[in-house]
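Workshop exercise sheet. Pairs work together: one partner reads the sequence aloud, the other fills in the structure field after running the prediction. Swap roles for the next sheet.
Pair: D.N. / O.F.
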Amino acid sequence: MMTYIIRRLLYAIPILMGVNILTFMLFFVINSPDDMARLNLGAKHVTPEAIEKWKEERGYDKPLLINSQAEGLDRLTDTIFYEKSVKLFMFDFGSSDSGRDIGHDISQRMWPSLAIAIPVLMVGLSINITFALLIVFFRTTYIDLWGVVLCVTMMSISGLFYIIGGQYLAGKLLHLVPISGYDTGFSAIKFLILPVIVGVIGGIGGGTRWYRTLFLEEINKDYVRSARAKGLSESMVMFRHVLQNAMIPILTGVVVVLPLLFMGSLITESFFSIPGLGSYVIDAINMQDFAIVRSMVFLGAVLYVVGLLLTDISYTLVDPRVRLD
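Structure field:
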């Protein structure tokens, strides 16, 4: 097991290096520091002095890869590549272009994102699996037919409809919960109820239909026919055999989205004014704060690689046939 984990971690290093180099090229080669200065200064006729001052204040006045004027290791470390890209591997995100500590912002904003994403995942997973098992249990009946029709209909509706409709119905019409905003401690619950409900409802269509497909593939296999031949009830077959053997693709889908839980939802957090990481990225894009965008791209890549590693490890917990050599 440990050998397998170490090997997968070693595989992750070139992947993260590739993401880092590609991000560096996009932000500093294709889009030069001079271009970033002009965009942030926002003036049509920016003087060269103003550009140089903006670059110097943010550390963009250094050479890109090699500092020929420095000596020793400073030739490599006193560069934009080292300061803005290599340090990301040490989770040193530095400062944003507006002067804020990115690491501190991430540590503060991750909690609102998790406060929405974790309940949406757990409640949504339970509801989707339950509905899918129910539809499969009554397969080839009207419950199955209209269940699929309902799922396809819900999948076809934009997530913005659920957000705006939920805000109007629960906030404007019924005055049950606040439409937007956030607070700390237990006072945040009233602001999280509506985003969580909207997130769960918006995912029922796609989630139920996907799990239904998984379960339908399992019920036609030999072990299911053997279980029925032994006299087990259909409900016992569904919940003890079909569900258990469908856990591998279920875990794959769940663990892979774990990084997205941390990163937050761009649309949901923006519409509900939740100060999470999703709205953090949107605000950075609107302000053209490239330092924040770079950091979040790298952090997303790290979390995605960790999610894939957790997926492989979780296979051994649900399927004894899988062996990690």
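Discussion prompt: The radius of gyration is 25 Å. What would you look at next?
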